[in-house]
């Protein structure tokens, strides 16, 4: 009996070795499931962290931007500059969380791609980013925060349209539903003008309309920018990895900052910054802290955007950035005592409904894309590698 059991043990050991050599998995289903569950929890944890970073950065930046104008800030170019000037923060993820695979990919891209083409892409996208940030600033200058945030939701509708023509993304019924409801929401706010708020903020009706159209134009511009970035990843940079996405954010922000600095001094606003600091209602220290805090908030938002692009997709990152839609108007009511009338409530509900349709379409697409992968994984576990 001992000899037979010993032989059987040797045969089992030999079978395991053969399985390992030919590539058949020797782990149990329980072990594989627990490993998949653990990795899935890590992925969800990182996604939640990046969503929180994005929402806090974006909401804080918008509220601080409104505070800057309410306290006497007048420089449009300065308010635009702070949206991109803190880009050196984005170097820290590369230093502290390096990915050897991604870094090698970046090296290959640098060698294989035309340096001139890459530089021209960065300059073009950075200039477009500066113009887009300028329109956002004009919108925030002439509009209440609640109206500004609700109109910004039209970015999803523009993103769907540009993705259809530029990125060949399908327009489903749910996406069309999003376009329709967000268009109606923005139209309601464009037609409706709250005269009491305009009088309190010393904004004429013509400036109010300028703010509305600048915000709509900025939303369209940012949606176009995202689509062009995706084209750049696919056709010029050939990859959309962590380090490559960070490079895109860093160098486009650098170009945008240079454009804003040139615009500031060319317009003469640079010479009036000292007087603006002195006349700031909350004081010089608060003036500096407001600008620094706004710059950091926008770049913290960028870190969340980059993280979601790397973990999920640029599409998902864009959708999550719209989650601040119900947060910012509520914060504006609490902090700035803004008035939300029936038209704004209807516009908010329409925007949330359109946003929900966009989220659900993203969920359906994600489910369809994962179904073949799950089937392939299940088949591969029972076959030779």
From TrEMBL:
Residues that span the membrane, as ranges: 43-64, 76-97, 109-129, 141-165, 171-191, 212-233, 248-266, 286-309, 315-336, 343-360
A Pfam family the protein falls into: PUNUT
One GO cellular component, as annotated: membrane
Predominant cellular place of this UniProt entry's protein: membrane
Membrane topology field: Multi-pass membrane protein
Family: Belongs to the purine permeases (TC 2.A.7.14) family.
Protein name as annotated: Probable purine permease
Organism annotation: Vigna unguiculata
